[in-house]
Amino acid sequence: MKKNISNWNNYPVVEAKEISFDTPKELALKLTHSSIPHGNGRCYGDASLYSDVVNTLRYDKVLAFDDTHGIITCQSGVLLSDLLQIIVPRGWFLPVTPGTKFITVGGAVASDVHGKNHHVDGSFSNHIVSMSVLTGTGETLVCSKTQNSDLFWATCGGMGLTGIILDVKFRLKHIHSSHIRQKQIKAENLDHVMELFNQNTESTYSVAWIDCLKSGKSFGRSILMLGEHAGTDETPSEKKLLAKEKSLLTVPFHFPSFVLNGFSVKVFNALFYAKNYKKEMDSVVHYDGFFYPLDSILEWNKIYGKKGFVQYQFVLPLETSREGLKNILTRINKMGMGSFLAVLKLFGHQDDLISFPMKGYTLALDFPIREGLFKFLDELDQVVADFGGRIYLSKDARMKKEIFWKTYPHAAEFQQIIKKYDPDNRFNSNLSQRLMLKV
Amino acid sequence: MEENVLILGAASDMAVGIARKFAAEGFSLTLAGRSMDRLKAIEADLKVRHNSNVSSVLFDALDFASHYNFYHSLPEKPDVVISVFGLLGDQEEAQADWKACQEILFSNYVGAVSILNVVANDFEKRKKGTIVGISSVAGERGRQSNYLYGSAKAGFTSYLSGLRNRLHKHGVHVMTVKPGFVKTRMIENLKTPGPLTATPKQVGEKIFKAVRSKADSIYVLPIWSPVMMVIRNIPEGIFKKLKL
Questions:
Q1: What does the alpha-carbon distance between residue A404 and residue A262 come to, in Å, rounded to a whole number?
Q2: Residues of A in contact with B13 (CB under 8 A)
C-alpha cells in the first residue's frame, strides 16, 4: 500500500511504500526494492524521499551508555529528544545538535548535522566512534575514521546513499548544568555582526538571527546569541540537571497563504529586534529554549500553509563571505521575499568528503512556496556557486545538478564510493536522481 | 522489593511502549518472546533508559505444552502479567487456507488462554496479582474485513471477563484492553484515521494508569467508547449490508 509522505517543509509530496524493521536480519529480507532510509522527516527536501522508503523510527533502542566516559551506543532510529532525557540527568549533553531535537541519530549522521558550536567542535561526524551500515552489497559493515574509512566518510553527510545506518556509537559532552549562560548582542548591520562573530570565536555557541528585509543603514541588522554551558553554581540546585519534555503549543492547522506576506514578516522582525531593549543582555536559560526555540511550537511548519515552503541554506568561503552575503541579501531584499527565520553563523574549518560545512559564513532562510520563487532561487544558486559556496543537501528540494557538481569538490569521489558499496543501486532517493548521483 | 511485570510477546511495538512505562515507574521486568535478538536490544534499552532490572526469556505462545514449565521456571514470580502477543493475519488468505486461519485463532485466543490459565491458577493461590489482556475493538462485532481475527479476540474478551469474575473474590485484578488503532508494525501499511490512532507510548501510559486504578476494561483513546457504541448498535439488518 502506498501513502503520501513529505518532509518538514511539505514539499515535495511523494507517494511511497514504507517498510520498517526491528533487526538487521529482518531488514535485509524486506529490502526488495530500491529504497531510501527515512527517519523523523525533519529534513527540508527530498533527500529521504523515494517511491520506497525504510522508516527507521522503530529501530530506536539505546544499547549502551557509559556514563563515566560519556559514550553512548544506539540504534539509528532513536530521536535526539529521547537521548537528552537519558543523558542530561547524568551530566552529559549532545556533542553537536541542530536547531531541532526531533531528528533521529541516523539523520544526524546522514546529514552530518552542525550546530551553534561548529567553529569549536565541528559537525556530528567528528564525534562518532564507530557505526554499522547495511550496505547495498547486503553486508553489515562496521566503519569509523580508521576502519572502512571510505564507507565512513561517504556515510557522514551522504544522505543515506551508502545504505541503512544501523547502530551508532558516539561521544557526548560533559556538562555540570542543564542551563546555558547566554549573551545577546544587538548588531546594527551586517558588517557589525560579522565583526562581532570575529570577536567571539572563543564562545562555545554562537549564532545570529538576521533581518533580511532591512535596507540602508540597518541592512543586515542582527541579534548575535552566544552561549556557554553554565556551571554548577549558576543554576538552582533542584534544576541542575533537568531534561525538558513538555511542549507548549501546537499549530492547529495550515495557515492560509495570505497570512505570510512582506508586511507580516516585517512586523515580526521589528518586534523580534525590539524585544532586546538593551544593546547587550545576559541571562541563564534552560538548554531547551536556547537550542530548540521552535520545538516548543509543535508543527510550526503549518504556518507556511499547505503549499509548503523551502529552506535555503548556503555557505560561502570566508574570503568571499562579506561580498557574497551583501549580494544575496540585496537580492532577497529587492524581491521582498522575506523569511521569519534567517539564521547566520560562522563555521569553523571542515573539508570532508561530502559534508556541507566549510570555513566561512552560512545563512539559512525559509521561503513560502509561491510563483517565481524557484526561478529566484536558481539565480541565488548561481551567485552562491560564483562565490565558491554551496547549498546544504538536507535542506534542498530543487537545486539543479550542474550546481551540485560544480560546488561539491569531492562529488565524483563520493559517487565512486557509493557505487562500490551499492553497485546495484539498491539505495536511491529523489535527491540522488535529481542530482544524478546514482547512474 | 520492586514489583515485577511479565510481558508476553515483548518484542512488539506496543509491548515496548508498555515496558518503557513500567520501567519508568520502577518495575522490574521479565520480557518473554520468540526472538532473543529482539528481546536483548529491548532489555539493553530499558536498562540504559531507566536503570531497570530486566531479564529476557524465550516464550512461544503456540507451544502450549511448554507453558506450564515456562511460567514455573521464571527467574522471578510476576506481580503483573500483560499478554500482548497477537496476530492480525490476512483475512482473505485465512478464509482460503486453514493453516493461516488456525494461526490467527491460536495466536489470538488459544495461546492466550493456555498461558493465562497457568498464571490465573498461580495468582488465585497467591491471592494477588494483575492480569492484563490486550484484546481488540475488532472483537466487539464481526466485520467481513477481519472477522477471523475479530472472532478470536471476541473469544479472548469473553475469557478475560470470565476470569475477572472468577478471580475477583481472590483479590486478583483482571483487565481487558481494547487499544483501537495503534501506530505499530501490525498496521504499518494500513491507513488509519489520525484521531483514532494512538501511539505505543500512549498505550503504555494508559495501561499503567488503569492497572493502578484497577479498571476492568479500557479503550486507550476515549473516543473509541462512543465509536464502538455506534458500531455495536447498528441493527444487524443494516450492518450486514455495509462494506466494513
A1: 30
A2: 58
